[in-house]
Amino acid sequence: MFDKPPPIISIFNYGGGLRGLIPAQIMARIEQDTGLRMADMVDVFTGPSTGAILNAALTLRNPDDSSKPKYRARHLVKFYEREGERIFPPDRFREFRGLIHDFNNRTMRISQLNNIFRHGHYNPSNLGRALKALYGTAKLSDSLKSLIIPAYNIDSDQLYSVTELGETGESPVHTKNNFLDTAGHALWMKNIKFNKHSALKKSITPDVTLYDAVMASTSAPTYFPCHHFAARWPGNAREHHYTAIDGSIFDNPAITYLGALRQHLLPQQKVMMIGLGTGFTNKSIKKDEWNKFGALGVVDPANDLPLINIFFHAPESALLDAFQEEMGDNLFLLNKSIVTNRSVHTPSIQMDDGSPQNMKRLKDFADGIIEDNRAQYETICDVLVQHYDHRKNWMDMVKPSKWRKIWSYMTK
Q1: What are 62's strand-pairing partners?
Q2: Spatial separation of the C-alpha atoms in residues 101 and 116, rounded to whole Å
Q3: Pairing relation of β-strands 240-246 and 146-153?
Q4: Which of 391, 171, 371, 174 is nearest to 272 (CA)?
Q5: Strands, DSSP E only, in 52-120?
Q6: Which among 200, 230, 219 is positioned nearest to 139, based on CA atoms?
Q7: pLDDT tops 50 at residue 166
Q8: Measured between alpha carbons, how far is 335 from 344 in angstroms, rounded to an integer?
């Protein structure tokens, strides 16, 4: 009689720009309290945008010992503190340039203004330089643990016909009768390493650099321009090009579980998901306030981008109750609102505030999340350590040659 395989533990790090320091700090505390690295304890690293920055770094192999990760979470805390104001340099006029750009588009059509005001975006080369220093030339396929990086492809010209699932492997997008949508689509870039000896359908890993995958997933609308990159898919001879924006457009823990993870699980295999937030920024809006915004005000940074905040939060709020019911005790979410109970010590809700004062407030906010959820935090640490021990025993017991027997037993 074979024991069931250990559950898969997935960590979901949310998007949120420099507020990514919050999950980085929480994970640094977990590593400190358990004495283990996140890559020792977690099977799958998921999440968009700034979460993808964290996930790709924490699964990067150490060049001196490929069985170990290069970074600990505390290194990522330092990354945000060091690079924050370089990626998002202080700029009092960014919102003004965005307003002028919109005015230019609607009225004057003056190309010189278009060049001067740069669409209100930050210079992506600052983020690109930081990510290249972080990942070097590593590829998605090099990750030490399973890694899922989401982005949203906006360029329909790059879509192509693919064969049915099972003929040459998994398609990067959803298809029906061999046809693709003519508009944009969600793009999952996955390197799935668990259950790799089983009879499950294998996940196809694209040939893409971590730099390109993460740059695509972090191209937040209104902050950065889209990211254009190339990737090759096994079984397809030609190179495919994508024009992508932030994966936060569609991704959340429920979407990741249903859309990117569940099909790789063994029968009866459970998933434990740990979600580390970057602070809730959505807030209640009264009827009169909303109506005063008008067509442009709902996307105005001066109003805290209310419509964009709603777009980011709405899919998760629609699914969360059902997802929590399905996951039960296997779902852990650590987060709290930045908007409510504000004080001089509360971090900015803006994702681009890299000031030293705000970095300190973000770390304190992360520590506050732990203290407000102390019992759940301690349970998470216990679960992670037990999973590490259980998985070691399981892998010692089960060699690849025994997988066929185990599969036959589990699918009876």
Answers
A1: 65
A2: 9
A3: antiparallel
A4: 391
A5: 61-62, 65-69
A6: 230
A7: no
A8: 20
**Residue 106, C-beta contacts closer than 8 angstroms, at least 6 positions apart:** none
Least confident piece of the model among 200-204, 216-220, 336-340, 357-361: 200-204
pLDDT of residue 157: 59
Q: What is the reported pLDDT for 302? A: 74
Residue pair 244/226 in contact (Cβ under 8 Å)? The answer is: yes
14, 36, 144, 290 from 40: Cα distances, Å: 21, 6, 10, 47
C-alpha–C-alpha distance, residues 385 and 377, integer Å? 13
409: confidence class by pLDDT, cuts 50, 70, 90: very low
Q: Quick one: average pLDDT of 187-195? A: 92
| R_g of the chain computed on alpha carbons | 22
Q: Is residue 45 within 8 Å of residue 210, measured between CB atoms?
A: no
pLDDT (mean) for 51-60: 98
Q: What is the pLDDT of residue 284?
A: 87
Q: Report the residue count for the chain.
A: 412
What confidence score (pLDDT) does residue 411 get? 43
pTM: 0.85
Give the CB-side neighbour count of residue 244, counting CA atoms within 13 A.
28
What's the first-to-final CA gap in the chain, in angstroms? 13
The owner of tokens 């019992």 is 375
Beta strands, E only, 295-410: 331-334
Q: Which residues fall within 8 angstroms of residue 163, CB to CB, at 6 or more apart?
A: 178
The total of other beta-carbon atoms located within 10 Å of residue 223's CB is 21
CB 370 within 8 A of CB 23: no
CB atoms within 10 A of CB 370: 18
349 burial via Cβ count (<10 Å: 0-12, 13-18, 19+): buried
Establish how many alpha carbons lie within 13 A of residue 82's alpha carbon, considering only the half-sphere containing its beta carbon: 11
DSSP 8-state code for residue 250: T
- Residue type at position 263: Q
Q: Cα separation of 289 and 355, whole Å?
A: 30
Report the alpha-carbon distance of residue 407 to residue 295 in Å, rounded.
Answer: 56
Q: Which residue's entry shows tokens 């010692």?
A: 396
* Rounded Cα distance, 74 and 3, in Å: 36
Q: How far is CA 193 from the centre of its chain?
A: 18
Q: What share of the chain is helix, strand, coil (3-state, %, to 5)?
A: 50, 15, 35
H-run or E-run covering 230: strand 227-231
Nearest to 313 by CA among 24, 10, 14, 11: 14
Residue type, 324: Q
